[in-house]
Amino acid sequence: LNQILHEFETKIISGNAHWNHINFRSYFSSRNFPSGALADLVVGSLFSVLCNWAMSPSGVEFELQMVDLYGKLLGFPDIFLTNSPNSTGCGVTLSATSEGVIMAMLTARELMFEKHATNRTERFDVHSRLVAYMSDQAHSCHERATKLANVECRILETDENGSLRGTTFEEAIERDLEDGKIPFFYSLSFGSTGVIAFDNLKEISGTCEKHDIWIHADLAYTSSVLICPEYRYIIEDIEKVTSISCNLYKWIGLNTCVSLFFTRRGKEYKSIFSLNPDYLHYTNQEGNTYKYDHMDTSVTLSRPCRGIKLWFHIRLNGLEKLQKIVRSHCNLAKFVGELISEDERFELLKVTLSVSIFRYHSNDKFNEYLHQSLIDSGEMYLTKTLFKGKTYLRFLIGAPDENQKDVAQAWKIIVNHIDKIEEDQG
Q1: pLDDT for 294-329, tens place per residue?
Q2: Cα(172)–Cα(155) distance, integer angstroms
Q3: pTM recorded for the entire structure
Q4: Phi and psi for 38 in degrees, rounded to 5?
Q5: Rounded-to-integer distance, Cα 154 and Cα 131, Å
Q6: What SS3 state is found at 52?
Q7: What is the Cα–Cα distance from 365 to 379, expressed in whole angstroms?
Q8: For residue 337, is it left (φ>0), alpha (ψ between -120 and 50) or beta?
Q9: Domain range holding 187?
Q10: Residue pLDDT, tens place only, 368-391
Q11: Closest-CA residue to 188 (of 147, 139, 151)
Q12: In this structure, what CATH number is given to the domain that contains residue 267?
């Protein structure tokens, strides 16, 4: 074992990007908490496979209860929960938001086939006319899903804040309807990866309802902030969306791979891809009080019991601790914004939640130099993004216990690199 650990440290760790480092400020880096590692050990020891209810009765039921618990902690309406009275909703765990997007899009596609096609020939015709919509700030996994679903992708221009507006969306729908297309799916950006942009759901939802368009809300990053009630204003009108994806490992320390998926069309979601061959059939189905099998709700037929990881995370850390981390991160991001604004060489685009987005005032070449210089030095890892033709850098607050001193030191690293670039450029 010692030899294996030595090889692991010298051959793997030494060449890896260290996501747990305090100056790994790239993407949406949430540090792994011990609770997740411990839960992984427990789940791996169990070797309990969640495929159908008979394979792991308590695992299936416990996971559904945990997903509902987190749905309530995030403030989602009961219509998205599995066990809420009179709810048609369904909440499950998936491996990532990208899987949630794929499952939502495939479900919406099948519903369009049922609505418009009565035979195989008509199905092919309908398939060729389906169009999915998203903003130019949507994560690439949404466009990737259209490739997997083999449907047309329509990427729409956003406003100066990166928000897709109702007029732009409605005009695109009308053009496609005139061309004989069938609008069927819309990926709603609710805190996009690039500049943390929010589409205008209030303006867009009416058009989607009118044309029976499935709305999938990407809350991969922003879902974590919802554990603090004061931030739930960002999900106003969330009951108008059809499904939601959440990646709590992008902020509050729930390590991969656990993504939450909620839909208010649970019956259709669970039934469309349901198959029950003899080798998976079980006789005591009356015991399955939830009438639920995990194999019907994901790309994979089986997976580990992720509910245990959800349980360990909230029990070992507690809601108040997680809320404290989120609030601290948002305040530190504002502090970063102040540091950026104090230096006239920099332009602050925005501070949203735990991310500050900025650029050096000069041309994009300098921002490219700065980004590469930081990475090459090994001192800090930032992500760059292109917005409205300009290159910006994203400064993320991610470590659970970092403070203003840590942030100030990190900003000093950036300033030192800019000073060196300016000196080299003459």
Answers
A1: 778 888 877 888 888 999 999 999 999 999 999 999
A2: 10
A3: 0.93
A4: -65, -40
A5: 7
A6: coil
A7: 21
A8: alpha
A9: 41-317
A10: 999 999 999 999 999 999 999 999
A11: 139
A12: 3.40.640.10
